[in-house]
């Protein structure tokens, strides 16, 4: 009888030590969040949408402020739109995501992009709040996208439609500011 009590007491002490040192019941960790401490899985679809939104905001939705344009120099725009920017604009204009696997799917293959500058001009100087005296530089591009569109339908009769001569035209505007030098502001101005 005493042997059973001794082994039971040893088991209780060992289990208390194991739980206390594992970090599960450490009072120094702070408040317990209960069910909120359980991680909730997020669908990769929503994660990709958030990452795409952050990528586009960081890369394409901001207007940079460039240095002054020296008088008598040729006005040239920044780099033409990247292939990534063109494909993202095409995806917004004509999306193909969200197909049903094995029932209906679309693909764009053998993509070729031709970029043409349509216009490149400067607006007259003006005062923009929080920036100061600036000129807005406009650059307009016409992007022609040639691709092969493959549509696979799996029900009721499985078949594949291939359009080898698909063409889409996307217009992309690149705008940025140039600081105007030599312009003095009114009373109390910091320019």
Could you explain how this protein is built, in words?
Strands 1, 2, 3, 4 and 5 form a 5-stranded mixed sheet that branches. The N and C termini lie far apart (94 Å). The chain has 191 residues and is α+β, with helices and mostly antiparallel strands. The protein has a domain of 125 residues.
What would you say about this model in short?
The chain is α+β, with helices and mostly antiparallel strands and 191 residues long. 25% of the residues lie in helices and 35% in strands.
Write the layout of secondary structure elements.
Layout: H1 2-21, H2 44-59, E1 65-66, H3 83-93, E2 104-122, E3 126-128, E4 132-153, E5 159-179
Parallel strand pairs: 1-5
Antiparallel strand pairs: 2-4, 3-4, 4-5
């Amino acid at each position: 009888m005493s042997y059973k009590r001794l082994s039971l007491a040893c088991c209780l002490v060992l289990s208390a030590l194991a739980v206390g040192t594992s970090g599960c019941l450490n009072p120094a960790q702070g408040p317990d969040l209960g069910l909120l401490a359980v991680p909730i899985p997020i669908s990769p679809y929503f994660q990709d949408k958030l990452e795409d939104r952050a990528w586009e905001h960081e890369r394409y939705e901001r207007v940079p402020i460039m240095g002054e344009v020296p008088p008598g120099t040729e006005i040239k725009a920044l780099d033409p739109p990247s292939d990534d920017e063109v494909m993202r604009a095409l995806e917004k204009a004509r999306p193909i995501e969200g197909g049903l696997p094995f029932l209906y799917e679309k693909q764009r293959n053998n993509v070729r992009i031709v970029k043409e500058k349509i216009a490149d001009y400067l607006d007259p100087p003006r005062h923009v709040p929080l920036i100061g005296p600036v000129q807005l530089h406009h650059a307009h591009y016409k992007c022609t996208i040639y691709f092969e569109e493959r549509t696979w339908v799996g029900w009721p009769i499985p078949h594949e439609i291939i359009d080898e001569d698909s063409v889409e035209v996307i217009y992309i505007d690149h705008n940025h500011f140039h600081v105007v030098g030599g312009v003095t502001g009114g009373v109390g101005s910091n320019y």
